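Summarise this fold before class:
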Amino acid sequence: QVQLVESGGGLVQAGDSLKLSCAASGRSTSNYRMGWFRQATGKEREFVASINWSGGSTYYADSVKGRFTISRDKAKNTMYLQMNSLKPEDTAVYYCSAGQISQATMRERGADYWGQGTQVTVSS
């Protein structure tokens, strides 16, 4: 079992930055992939970014590439999403996720474990 808790969401203006955190506990994430998804009101869940816990390789959705950076702190069992140049279109509930799965599986199908979500609202 893996428990995930997101934090760091809030209300910001377009162009601002925000950093989300995801604390993981329970089963070790050494051989896991972790990632971020988001879901805007009335929209389907959207993949944002993922990172391999051990090797650190990353993958980003085109919509956030160049603006968002995913990272992790192994000692703290915590994953981060640094969001820069935020746009109103980034407004959504952001979910932390994890699983012993490939990047392609996470991007296309989802993950095994999910956090409760944290709201990010970007005003114009």
About this structure: The CA atoms of residues 49 and 60 lie 4 Å apart. The helical segments are 103-109. The longest strand covers residues 18-26.
